[in-house]
Amino acid sequence: xxxxxxxxxEDYKGAAAGWGALKAVxxxxxxxxxxxxxxxxxxTMNQPHGFDCPGCAWPDPKHTSSFEFCENGAKAVSWEATxxxxxxxxxxxxxxSELWEWHDxxxxxxxxxxxxxxxxxxxxxxxPISWEDAMARxxxxxRALPDPNMAEFxxxxxxxxxxxxxxxxxxxxYGTNNFPDCSNMCHEATSVGLPESIGVGKGTVTxxxxxxxxxxxxxxxxxxxxxxxxxxxxxxCAKRGAAIVSINPLRERGLERFTSPQHPxxxxxxxxxxxxxxxxxxxxxxxxxVLKGMMKTVVALDAASLAQGGPxxxxxxxxxxxxxxxxxxxxxxxATSWEAIEKSSGLPRADIENLGNIYAGxxxxxxxxxxxxxxxxxxxxxxxxxxxxxMLRGNIGRPGAGISPLRGHSNVQGDRxxxxxxxxxxxxxxxxxxxxxxxxxxxxxxxxxxxxxxIRDGRSKALICxxxxxxxxxxxxxxxYPAMRSLDLVVHIATKxxxxxxxxxxxxxxxxxxxxxxxxxxxxxxxxxxxxxxMSMVHASRGGLKPASEHLKSETAIVADMAIxxxxxxKVKWLDYVADYSKIxxxxxxxxxxxxxxxxRIKKPGGFRLRNAASEREWLTPSKKAQxxxxxxxxxxxxxxxxxxxxxxxxxxQYNTTIYGMNDRYRGITGRRDVVFVNEQDLAxxxxxxxxxxxxxxxxxxxxPRALRRVTAVAYNIPQGSVAAYYPEANVLVSLDQHDLxxxxxxxxxxxxxxxxxxx
Length: 760
Ligand SMILES: Nc1nc2c(c(=O)[nH]1)N[C@H]1C(S)=C(S)[C@@H](COP(=O)(O)OP(=O)(O)OC[C@H]3O[C@@H](n4cnc5c(=O)[nH]c(N)nc54)[C@H](O)[C@@H]3O)O[C@H]1N2
Ligand SMILES: Nc1nc2c(c(=O)[nH]1)N[C@H]1C(S)=C(S)[C@@H](COP(=O)(O)OP(=O)(O)OC[C@H]3O[C@@H](n4cnc5c(=O)[nH]c(N)nc54)[C@H](O)[C@@H]3O)O[C@H]1N2
Ligand SMILES: [Mo]
Hints:
This protein is about 35% helix and about 15% strand. It is α/β, with parallel strands linked by helices. The longest helix has 21 residues, at about 285-305. The structure holds ligand MGD (2 copies) and molybdenum atom (MO). The site of molybdenum atom has 4 residues, from loops. InterPro entries: Asp_de-COase-like_dom_sf (IPR009010), MopB_CT_YdeP (IPR037951), MoPterin_dinucl-bd_dom (IPR006657), Mopterin_OxRdtase (IPR006656), Mopterin_OxRdtse_a_bac (IPR010046), Prok_molybdopt-oxidoreductase (IPR050123), YdeP_MopB (IPR041953). This is CbbBc protein. GO terms for molecular function: 4 iron, 4 sulfur cluster binding; formate dehydrogenase (NAD+) activity; molybdenum ion binding; molybdopterin cofactor binding. Its cofactor is [4Fe-4S] cluster; Mo-bis(molybdopterin guanine dinucleotide).
């Protein structure tokens, strides 16, 4: 039977990228950029002397000789380098109550913020304010708090190492470790899980390792949309004959087929490269089961090989010399039945054994993963099972092998490296004291969820946001929005207007900053900044465009001004650092010796790699060995047989809470986001069908009723029991208490739900 036609819903038949992507870029650029900027902006992206793309944290190839084309990078750049402006006249024309009714896309689409603004209650409008006044109010507000731990300092992962370092220094001298950051909602399960397993909280591979891998696994990430430059790497792996295996509830087009814009032959002949050689659609939340099943298969293959007098399949030398805990892992695998694995993963045993065979048959394996792994109630457990699987065959710390978490924001990893953390270690604290002569606080601070709870409960009264859109990114708007409105002071350092800025506190201030594409001139001349990608490469980024407004300041300068305004007896020579960012890098090097010769090493195109002990098989765990860590049981998100689990996704036309447009090309959605992807049989079983208006209702007896109402059901190729909807709309269904038990990462991808027809 032909599917009923639903407005804006079609099957997408093409490969990823190709001409469709070129057209999308042309549209994006035409919509935003000043014509003069067009070529300059895009051509200097990810070049040795240009700026780092604010899109994603996938590394740049060593010798970037020509413009590396990426549709979503181009969208990110044109969104920042837009010719549109959100001026004081704009704010004069619209009350905050009126703007609150606008769509998130329309708020940001007004363009770049141009002036510092402060909220005026009498008119319900943001009015211009001088930088001096803004800083005086911020300083007074922060000094007025009885305890520095009553302020929260959020960081979104776009800011440079230099700005992030200055920020954490200011906040620690002020006296708190309350550093909620976007990483807490993203790869915290990695930052918490991997140190326990392998002693470092970062990926162990480099881009070169992909040249030597025999099998590359992609679990729970969507590179065609979120890390498009990765497709070039995967394409090369596929061409070379490496196995590429995807484990994902959805058949994401970028993981299936890719037409490379870098390769004219493919473009002109309308051909494409098949990416994944094997693709299994796991149930949402079924990854621990798949990983345990794969490990069971490897162990069984090992026994069979030994029985036939073969060498075995486990890397016994690696396990003996480098690891602890194999016995407990083997016992757990033994105790886990195939029946339970099949039920929890939604995959037949034969498929999982096939995955195990591919894994065991490959000499060197890389496993990539993203939010499909981390944003679960057991995200840390997920991450640690991936590490276990790799360790069984010594796939960590040698060429062509390793673990590869795909980080989110372009500098989220660097921000962490230079001190944005709510749990400072002794080395960081000692480094600050040694370098700056004050004693930073050592008590653990708040992560993102804890900060919102503290605000909700009135324990925190001020919030400073270095970028981002915390209230919309965070779970539970029903709790988060009123919490934000109860604050005494909110400051947003931002490039564009977003909904978080409209959650008005007693005092609300917006400070407009330079973006990465823009020239940053300080007292000693134009400055460069540095960033760290997903693979620990640190390199320089220099903006080339004229700033969007003459009133903008750099994030680094804004942080310094806040510090000066807040800390009358500061020990730090803030203005010297702002005048010359190379001095900030010297200070970073003094606090973190891993940045040895920082200023010299970033002169080299491509920069340098921060040492990663695990990739050299040095294990910074208490026992000095890598740890096999048991996750007991099989994690099933859904409480009952008939229950559904909702995962939340990014569309192809968004950057987190930034909605560029209403299309999701590869999933066949045009002009709308109010859809939910459901298996056809799950619909039928409930008397529903493709195109019906439905409500998604949280199915947790211990939680207040929550629902996302009147969304259109799309019958979609997704396993039974699994449902998908867009982030951030679906955040109404996630309570602040639904998060990974170990890392606090909100469980945005394991939401127990029911679906029902909407009331007429
Ligand atoms: N253009 C663009 N680029 C971006 C971003 C963006 O929004 N737009 N965001 C940036 C940021 S901050 C981040 S963190 C990254 C995010 O990059 P991704 O990790 O790719 O992000 P998601 O869209 O959340 O996609 C998660 C993928 O996991 C799958 N998935 C969902 N649930 C499960 C599950 O239970 N198991 C498995 N195995 N898979 C599952 C989904 O089908 C989807 O393919 O991208 C970064 N880059
Ligand atoms: N349901 C659900 N929720 C999620 C997720 C999910 O998958 N599902 N993903 C989570 C993840 S992985 C993340 S990382 C968070 C994202 O959370 P955030 O990082 O807080 O959100 P963004 O949408 O990236 O922030 C966008 C805003 O950043 C500002 N901005 C842009 N560029 C710059 C700049 O250069 N400097 C400054 N100062 N500001 C700038 C603009 O004002 C823009 O409006 O959301 C999380 N929330
Ligand atoms: Mo992220």
